[in-house]
Amino acid sequence: MNVKGIHHLSAMTGNVQGNFKFYTEVLGMRLIKKTVNQDDTTAYHLFYGDERGNPGTELTFFDFPGIGPTKAGVSSISGTSLRVASDEALRYWTERFTAHGVKHSPVTEFAGRNVIFFEDPEGQQLALVSDETNEGVAAGTPWDRSPVPEASAITGLGPVKLTVRKPESTVAVLGLLGFKETRRVPALAEGQADIIVMQVGEGGTGAEVQIEPRSDLSAATPGKGGVHHVAFRVEDKEELLAWIDILNQMKLPNSGFVERYYFRSLYFREPNGILFELATDGPGFDTDEPFETLGESLALPPFLEHQRKSIEANLKPLDTKRNSWIDD
Questions:
Q1: Is residue 290 exposed (0-12), middle (13-18) or buried (19+ Cβ within 10 Å)?
Q2: Which parts of the sequence belong to the VOC domain (predicted)?
Q3: How many CB atoms lie within 10 A of CB 249?
């Protein structure tokens, strides 16, 4: 009963059109689902990923127009990594980021891998991490119509960084999920404790969480450029139901079973207040759209389809049909 790795990560944007442009045109990820936040159907929920949106490749965004910027602090998911195949790919990205005016660091070594730290247009803290020496959870398959060459393309989610005041509590909950500490690395902030690196299952970049203890920060304020939650992979519905029993036995408050149609979920907060989700590997994102046109139209799960007219009336138009840049 261990989770298998990272399933997806959900962040927030205040500019859905700009978000779509950056993540598809600059980062070259595929929009594999344009749907709505099932808990607030006035907001888009965009899913980016590899060619099919395989588990472990999905970076998603809730669109909240007018939301203020996030304020960094504890009790937050403070860093999101995206995998690329090699150190050579990082050299490609250094040039691409410069050409597109993306704020970024040089290639640097962190936690035993070469990385580039960068920001999206709303200040989300991101990193590209090289899989040059990686062993563990397999990467995804880049979309062959991406504007980024396949050898340099983003192949999935890498390590997720959690910033907390009391790391022992987060370590304990991750331990319950099957994570084990693999090493500690020097803090990014002067005078702070080492970052605790934990991995689960097959390990590697697709199954790693980095816990950053910070005693010098107040609580984060959520907003655009911030992360809402991180989801971890479980095999299927039966395993998810077993996890509900485990959390109830541990007296950890949770959502119980949640039907998301494209996957099934369970939500709970670890003691430092960060929202965790457990999500099943299936059914997947091509259950209601052809593979060739994923993300081009507004997709709604069957239980929201009867509200389509009113939902579409409350959404700002967003054209996600494949434009000419795909073939350039």
A1: exposed
A2: 5-131, 156-281
A3: 8
**How far from each other are the two terminal CA atoms of the chain, in whole angstroms?**
46
Domain enclosing residue 44, as ranges = 6-327
CATH number for the domain spanning 16: value is 3.10.180.10
Are 83 and 32 in contact, with CB atoms under 8 Å apart? no
Contact 80, 157 (CB under 8 A): yes
Alpha helices in the chain (DSSP H): 16-21, 87-100, 167-176, 237-249, 302-305, 308-313
Residue 313's Cβ-side half-sphere holds a number of Cα atoms within 13 Å equal to 4
Q: What is the mean pLDDT of each run of 10 residues along the chain (328 residues)?
A: 95 97 98 97 97 98 96 98 98 98 98 97 98 97 96 98 98 98 96 97 98 97 97 98 97 97 98 98 96 97 98 96 56
Place of tokens 């907003």: 223
Question: Both tokens of residue 188?
Answer: 């990014």
Name the token pair of 73: 């602090």
On whether residue 1 sits in a domain, the answer given is no
Q: Residue 283: which region, alpha, beta or left (left: phi > 0; alpha: psi -120 to 50)?
A: alpha
- B/e letters for 257-275, b = 16+ CB within 10 Å, e = fewer, are ebeebbbbbbbbebebebb
Kindly list the distances between the CA atom of residue 223 and the CA atoms of 24, 33, 284, in Å, as whole numbers in the listed order.
22, 22, 28
CA dist., res. 22 & res. 42, Å (int)? 22
Q: Could you tell me if residue 296 is inside a domain?
A: yes
Integer CA distances (angstroms), 208 to 157, 204, 257, in order: 10, 6, 25
* DSSP 8-state class, residue 202: T
CA distance 127 to 96: 14
DSSP-derived pairing of the beta strands 76-84 and 58-63? unpaired
Residue 280, domain member (yes or no)? yes
